[in-house]
Amino acid sequence: MTLDFDSVITEGAARQIAETIREAIMSGRLKVDERLPTEEDLADRFKVSRPTIREALKRLAAQNLIRSRRGPAGGRFVSRPNQEDLIRTMGNATRLMISIGEFDFDNIIEARQEMGLICCRLACQRRTKPDLEALKAELSVQKDLSITDQEFCASDVRFHHAVAQATKNPVLLFVMAAVAETLQPIANMVVYRFRDRQRICAQHERLFDAIRDGKTSVASKVFLEQMAYLRDIYTRAQQWRQEREVVAGHRSV
Length: 253
Hints:
The chain is mostly helical. 75% of the residues lie in helices and 3% in strands. The chain folds into two domains: 5-78, Orthogonal Bundle (Arc Repressor Mutant, subunit A), CATH 1.10.10.10; 84-252, GntR ligand-binding domain-like (Four Helix Bundle (Hemerythrin (Met), subunit A)), CATH 1.20.120.530. The chain has a two-stranded antiparallel ribbon with strand order 1-2. α1 packs across α3 (50-62). It starts with a helix and ends with a helix.
């Protein structure tokens, strides 16, 4: 077996250069919308070839850290962060951690519960009329018996996103968006066979009433009740799955 040491060195150099520029962006030394030096200038600064610089810049573009613009005033510029892209990136990383067994359902529920309680408390204090309208709209969707399980799950996610929106805390909203839009759908689709949609809708309605009336203790109690219910039906779902696997194993013998 022969190794192409030149390509190994090039890839290693590109990765290091990309990380150096990434750190400059993250630290603020390179500002949003600031133009990067040309490929030729970067090659001179880092003492590498232009193809190596191009590879480094491709890595940064793949992370949505820089963008290209053509024309006389073109070049490569530091990108403005896009929340949806960042949430999607966090979601992909989270799903990977679940798939390799680093996160289990108990971890998910515990994190979801603690952050959800904070959201309930702040939402009771800071909700506005548009927040209440958003919550009420999702309740209307969930009461429609004709919607599919997937549509119900999507509305469930949007309902809890609206609760997080009502906190008026952008950091909390960002984190909860990543949690609700990645972990909650996974949990929902695992347990949908055993979930009583009307019961969950009733819980959401009580949570809405508590937030509307500013009753923090009631909102927290309802939310904890829903988390306990989710734990229970997940346990039932897991037992059902294990029983099916045992039956399938016997049939294959």
